[in-house]
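To whoever picks this up:

The parser on our side crashed when reading a file containing two proteins. I've narrowed it down to the boundary between the first structure block and the second sequence. Both blocks are reproduced below exactly, byte for byte. First block:
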Amino acid sequence: MKGRGWAALAAMACAMTGIAPVAAQGWRHVGAVERVEPRADGVIVASGPAQLRVTAVGEGVFRVTLAPDGRFDPLPSWAVVAAAAPASVAVADTADAVTVTAGDAVAIVRKRPLRVEFADRAGHVLLSDSQQMPMAWSDSPHGPRVRSWKTMPADEHYYGLGDKAGPLDRRGRAFTLWNSDAYGWQGSSDPLYKSIPFFIGLRAGTAYGVFFDNTARSSFDFGKESEDYFSFGAEGGALDYYFIAGPQPARVLQRYTALTGRTPLPPMWALGFQQSRYSYNPESKVREVAAQLREHRIPADAIYLDIDYQQGYAPFTVDRKQFPHFEQMIADLRAQGLRTVLITDLHIKHAPGTGYAPFDSGLAADAFIRNPDGSLYIGPVWPGDAVFPDFTLSRVRDWWGGLYRDFTAMGAAGYWNDMNEPSVFNVPGNTMSPDAVHRLDDGSQRDHRAIHNVYGMLNARATYEGLLKLQPEQRPFVLTRAAYAGTQRYAATWTGDNSATWHHLAQSTPNLLSLGLSGMALAGDDVGGFIGSPPPDLLTRWYQLGAFNPVFRNHAATDTRPHEAWVDGPQHEALRREAIELRYRLMPYLYTVAEENSRSGLPIMRPVFLQYPQAEAFYGNDRDFLFGPDLFVAPVCDGRLDAQQIVLPPGEWFEFGTSRRQVAQKDPIRLDPRPSGVPLYARAGAIVPMQAVVQHTGEKPAGPLQLQVYLPKAGGECSGSLYQDDGESQAYKTGKLLRVAYGCEVSKRGVVLTSRIEQDGFAPWWGDVEVTVYGVARKPSALRRDGQSIADWSYDPQMQLVVIRMEQARRGWKVVLNL
């Protein structure tokens, strides 16, 4: 039923029976508060046997846990890392409510009926339980179901839940979180591969977040059932959630990633272009693709090997008939600047008595999941009958990590954990039996219903931690398909088996933005579409959009036409090369943004409202986005021939690489004819570090470091930054890094540019700097660097730009342009 249909029927039932709507649906809910137990970090209140615990776990972050029988589950969270305790917590108990104050937010526990509200220090309510539909539980064969209903303002918007299809704004729809092998998914498909039960609510520029830390099958309804409330709950486990105050959406995301962990700084090569296919085989084909990448001057950093490199699809094996010189091939690719990424699915072939080492060692270590009767759980996947590691045990994760020893010795650089929902063929639900038994380190057990959504995360964790043990000085690169909240600590991800359609090209942006808003900043999709053969125009547009995705990987199924950049003739090849080259020119900027993400949790690819929360025109924009803080991308995402229409974010923007200044306005910019590339804009006041084109990130760029300065109006903010290190080791953690802050001040008299070294523990590839200043209306009368005249500079009156070339400019400097 639409709108208020269910609520109306429930109200009628309530009027006739005298019971609450939740009771009419079989729910039981807490009544009035009967006992209050103040604590140093919050409060526990009781209503009958049920207890509700509200604690402050960080500045502006509260945890709410309901125990219907009064017993709180001691199982620690798989997602939450050690939270920073708030500086102070104030608890006040009155006749009507208990308040818990931590930082800039207040949790209010109302006593009659028991419900929870969250407000800012000024008393503005940010989120509150529905008085008509309070939190509740009901019995099921597998434990209590739990649910929470919240009032839903008419103008509030909802974002997150990770990798979900459809529009970025979740309002008006309902979702299920149950990791699923969703081959051929479409815009209405649900559930998909990942379960990240975190969302951001945004209303008139003010935001909050909710993280429902429950690994069972869960669901979220953002107003599909009723226009008056939204709700979330699960088919098992506890009602255990975190409220995260803003008020800015960026602040919410920073606090959420502080709670669940942040993405480690990736190796720089992982930000380069990556070429893949299911499958490149035999060995001669891999070498041919590598040679073509270099012959066609297509910058690239990695080649992926899908399951056909293995012997009978058995993980951690090599088919020596197809790949007779496997180790030498990896070394030869590396000499060409190409890393090798190997798929390592988690299903281990069930092969007793055959000498298959992963099975034999896993069986000896009692590493595999079992049925309730103690027998091995066996399910068919790519190698046929397979067994599955019990990643909930730390000793099994250690065993799994050790399986990578041979591949790391061979020189493989990254690993691809696919099929880890887990996917099982020809069984109900296409996944593991819900009764399969997982064992925990404390000796307790859980069935697969409770572990399913976190299983892929634990697989990625085992891979990541194993690689760190094997190569402690190297940054691991792991790509996972399935995920739960916190997976960003261990792996990058992608959106699974998409299709070669214009719809899927357009869908990639809201999916990736949502993943970034859910903590998983290192994400991409299969450029060109995994399923099907894209026409040339679609494939070209996908390369152009993919160049601004955090993970830029071209991948396709084995039965499709080739997706490589050169397959459609010189005109399309040139456009695709241009897109890839722009990404490599922007690598200093991109790497700086990736490092910022590792510290702050702010994603690389950002919805406009994350940076401009008052810009309500962008609350429902599924096409345009920010690439880092300073670049606005308006990609072409459909095959229509009518003009491209663009609305800019607030403030002033420059067409990238020009002095053409645009001011944000309500009426869209009309680009007619349609652009051959991606419309790209730089924020007025941005200083963007760039470099010359290279064929891979390990190649030293020719010439100087390039700085593009887009001048704001007089008095406007103007800044930029640069982060650099060796790009692959852990040495940056001990201070072997370079961090530079750039600034500029604009006045009627001229422009002052500055470079300030903040950390100087790494010697970069560059020593000289070339600064291009855009938006200079007249030729400067003089230029000085640190008080000395600059001779090597030029002014282009038509382009209204100044180019300044400075030698030995790695140290701090100050440049004055007199106008």
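<<boundary where parser fails>>
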Amino acid sequence: MLNKSGDRGSPWRQTTASSFTLGFFSPGVSTKRYLGIWFSVSNDTVYWVANRDKPLVDRSGMLVFNDAGSLVLLDGSRRPVWSSEMSGGASAVAAQLLESGNLVVRNGSSDAYLWQSFDSPSDTLLPGMKLGKYSWSRTVWTLTSWRSADDPSPGDYSRTLEGVGMPELVLWQGNAKTYRTGPWNGRWFNGVPEATTYSDMYPLHVTTTATETTYGYTAVPGARLTRVVVNHTGVAERLVWDSTNGEWTSFFKRPKGDCDDYAKCGTFGLCNDTAASFCGCVPGFSPVLPSAWHSKVYAGGCRRDADRDCGGGGTTTDRFRVIPGVKLPDTQNASVDTGVTLEECKARCYDNCSCLAYAAAYIQEGGDGTGCIIWADTILDLRLVDRGQNLYLRLSKSEFDGSKRFPVVLVVAPVAFALTVLLVVLLIWWRMRRRILGAIPQNPSIAVHSVNLATMKHVTENFSESNIIGQGGFGVVYKAQLAEGRMIAVKRLKQSALTRKGKKDFAREVEVMAGLRHGSLVRLLAYCNQRKERILVYEYMQNKSLNVYIFGTTSLRASLSWARRLEVIHGIAHGVAYLHGGSGESVIHRDLKPANILLDDEWKAKIADFGTAKLFAIDETGPDQTIVVSPGYAAPEYEQKGEMTLKCDVYSFGVILLETLSGQRNGGTQRLILHVWGLWEQNKVMELLDITLPLPKSDPELLSELKRCIEIGLLCVQEMPCDRPTMSAVVAMLTSTTSHIDRPRSPTMDITATASSRDDETDLSIPTTIDLT
């Protein structure tokens, strides 16, 4: 604590609250000195800087009180370089660093703060801080990035809470918006559904009154240290301290993809970051400049296909089409009324010819939500998100005449006739679900839709052989192109596969995939369950499956560099970890292998083929009649005894990891695993690496990471399930060099004695896996 009555001639150096430290520091390689506050567990994590743009040039700075009671930072010549700019007046004024990280100045006889550092944030938001404004005192709270990693002066990027329309957080580069979270929906910011995974530990708070529009968050007792930072590269990120590994873990990071770029698809555009051509138009609209869109230049946006019919006063034939699962458009020019119902909102939009669309303001009450947002200017920065809201778009009656083609937008949805068919099918299913095997359960996710058979025939040119891109014993995969140019993969089950089990596997895949949304999982877009057809529609994966590159020709192997192979391994690990708990319930894939790992146009790995997956929390108590064995990938306890746990997927992942690095198949005789163990015992594991790629001898860090990966792979293929790590632990070991890795135990049994003399290329229990390429 620093007191006004103290010796102001003595140089003040440093004070510490248990979690935070106040003192002088020099960032990075800089020799300049600053007064700042940092986390005691991480000395290089400075979250507040006093003299951001006026550094000290030597080590003689002092922090003192002046005669007016303000905190003042003096340089070596006793000239002020920073001040708290407040008048305490009282002789007993004191400064104190609180356990919250807040540096406060108070009158010794009062608990009220005369000044606090939380009112002058730098680039970081801590629990208890605020963004926004308080009009009564004209206080505005904004985060501003550092200029660089070595320069804490105000940089180009800032983060604000915008209160015009609905409150939402906006990231700026100068005066230009670069990213927005979407509006506050009463529980989280509409475009940041991942907030639900940490809001129990760090509750979010938005206050909107006549005098205050602010956002902040708190931390529940016992929660780990956390911070939200806007870094000098223009990224906003929530980080949480991992005391076990001694590092910060990212819980949220934006922007991180094309669809995060503000207004990427222009006016009335809809962005889908899981699509190869991620920009499309909302229903009833087409690109203004089609030739530019083919070149992936989307700034021109979209225009209406048919004029609306509106004379005002309710005399209109216009109708509304729902666009489900979206981050709502920018609300800066929207009108908001939180005191009405959604039905009243719809009526208002009908009565106002200027109304283009409407949506609920809040969803915390459940159902369709309450309150009203009306857009009368334009629709901008619209994108698909997990757990997104419904946007009700106003269109001409002609858009609902049933003749519209399979969608112009990036959402798979049937035309009006197909919706009618779907309702009938669901009604029949509801009444007969206990007697009919293979029926599709009512889909709880608004992101996966049923499509009709006529649509599937149209986009595949009546399932033309020229469109076949993969096939196996269960079905055929067709490459198809939607009207706006987007590519999809259509998996049509063969009639011979529509046995009781085949229908059950189809239903399982729809049920499992409907609830899963992760960047490392192939996205199920739609399904068709009509007549005797069972069809699945997936996102198109341009670079086919992993096995093509790790077991293919020399040129194909060369296209998968060491860095790219490590990225593939990381992607698979994140995807499996998500299946094992990140999705809210545990899912066991049961058939992980390179043929089921697909690569998109950016070589990102995505897990496919969930027809054999089990929802573990539901299925684990019942008998599993189907043993899915892919030789070389099935865990010993599952292959030999049918014992299925999450650790079975860990074993399969370990085999995939070792095959990806070696370019060798494991096979039913477990020859690769035995080979790796032999190299491990001789301390020659680097000899495992694929000989078709040159060793990265000039990059010792990459070599070390490859060796670390092999060790992780051996841990994953341990004979006993209890000796294998969880997938969350695997992710930690892969992403952090400081994570501890247990020494793998060599196998105690003769693996070759338990393996049959079967064909290593053939799957014994199910037909060849179909690549959704």
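After patching the parser it read the second block fine. The chain has a mean pLDDT of 82. Residues 65 and 71 are 5 Å apart (CA to CA).
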